[in-house]
Amino acid sequence: MPSSWLRLGMVCLLVVLAQETLATHIQVWSVHPEFAWLLAPSIGLVGGAEAGAIGGLLIGLSVDCFVPTPFGLSALVMVIVGFAVGIAAERGALASIREVWWLPVGLGAASGLIGVILYFLLGILFGQSQFVNSPILAISVITVLSCAVLAVPVAVLVTWAWGSDQPRRRHRLRRMS
Amino acid sequence: MASRQARKRFTILGVLIAVSVLLITTQSSVGGSVKSFGSILLSPFAAVVNTVTRPIGNFLSGALNYSSVTSENAKLRAQIAQLRMGQSEVAYERRQVANVLGLQNLPFLNQLPTQTAQTTGITQSNFSSTITISKGSSSGIAPGMAVVGAGGYVGQVVGASSKSSSVRLVTDGRTRIGVSFGQTSVMGVLQGGGPSHALTVSYVPIGSLVHVGETVYTNGLSGSEFPGGIPIGHVTLARSRSTASEMQIVIAPNANLGNLSYLNVVLWEPLK
Known about the structure:
- The complex is a heterodimer.
- Chain A is mainly α.
- Chain A has helices spanning 3-20, 22-25, 39-47, 49-64, 73-90, 102-125, 136-162, 169-176.
- Chain A has a single domain, classed as Orthogonal Bundle (Arp2/3 complex 21 kDa subunit ARPC3), CATH 1.10.1760.20.
- The two termini of chain A are 28 Å apart.
- Chain B is α+β, with helices and mostly antiparallel strands.
- In chain B, helix 1 (2-25) crosses helix 2.
- The radius of gyration of chain B is 23 Å and the shape is globular.
- Classes of the chains: A mainly alpha, B alpha+beta.
- The interface between A and B is large, with 57 and 56 residues.
C-alpha cells in the first residue's frame, strides 16, 4: 500500500473521529456540526473521481459505524459526492481552486449542503420515516457553516496526505488523450 | 482509450453504489454484522479521541450556548433549593409509598418481570438517536420490548444480540405508541418528533378532557406492543382549535433522557 493511502487513511480516521466525538458535544439549535462530508470531495479533488468514490465509501462506512441510521447510507452519499467532485475537477471545472480564495470555502459549503440533502432524501427513500420530522433547515445551515469553516484545513490535510508521489488523474488523462 | 477509461470508472461507481445499497437493505444480516465489527474496531480510537476532545467540546458548547447555560444554572439552583426542602419529606413518603404498594396489587410493572441493564453507548446523529444497553437476548430481551427508567417509558428495543441491545429512544421520529390520558378514557397515538423535539399525541377528538400536567400512559389495548399503564410523560400543551379536526397535544417525557445510566427492560411481549 502506498504511504499516501496510509496517510490519507489516518487523516480521514482523525476527521471522522473528531466528527463523532468533538462535534457531537457542540449543539447549536439542538443540532451538531457535520464536517465529515468534506472528506470525499477533498479526495475527489486531489485524486480524481475513482479515488473520491472509493474514499467516500470507506469514510462513509466509518461514519455509519457511529450513527443509528442505516449502515451504508452515509457511504452511498459520499460515493456520489466524491465521484461528482472528482469528475468536475478532472474536467477542469475547479481549475482555479488554488487561485480564487473563496472557491474552496464555497465548494466545502456546497459539498456539505448537497451531502446532507442527499442523505435526507435517500434516508426517506430507504424507509427512515423519522427523517421527515428532523429539523432539516437547521441541520443544513449548521452543516454548511461548519463545512465552510473547515473546508480549507481539511483540504490542506487531504492534499498533504495524498502527497506529490501520487500521479494526479487529470494529468494522466491529458497524457492519454 | 478515453471512453474505455470512462466506462471503467462508471463501472466502479456502479459497484460502489451497489455495495452501499446492499448494506442499507440488509441491515438485519450483512449490514448489521459489518456495522458491529466496525464499531468494535473503531470504538477504542473513538474513546481516546473523546477523552482528549471532550473539554474542548464542552468549552465550545458553553461558549455557543452561553445564555442557555446561565439560565440552566439558575433553574438548577432553584431545583436544588426545592429538593433540599423536600428532602425531609422523602423518608416519610417512601414509607407511605411502600405501604401503598404492599397493600395494592398494582397491575403493571412491579408484577411484570424486568431485566436491569446499563447503558453502554449512545449513538446519535442529527436525524435519529438510539442507545446501547449491556444486556441482550441471552437475558431474555427481544426486539419490541419496552424500556423504562426512573419516571417512565424511555424507548423500545429495536435490536438484540446475545450480550447487548439497541434501544430507540421515545423522542425518535419513528415512535408510535397507543396512549391514554390519566384516569380518563381518552386515547390517542403518541409520536416522537426527532431528537430534542417535543412528543405529540394525535387522533384526540376536539373537546376531549385533556389537561396540562396530566400523565400519559401506554393504553395496553389488545394487540398493542406494550402492557398498559406505563407512564410516558405529562401534557405540557393541550389546545382545541375550532378549525382543526383533532386536539393539539404536546408531551414532555417523564424519564430524564439526559441521564440513562441504568434502565429496566420490561420482559413482556404481546400475545401472538
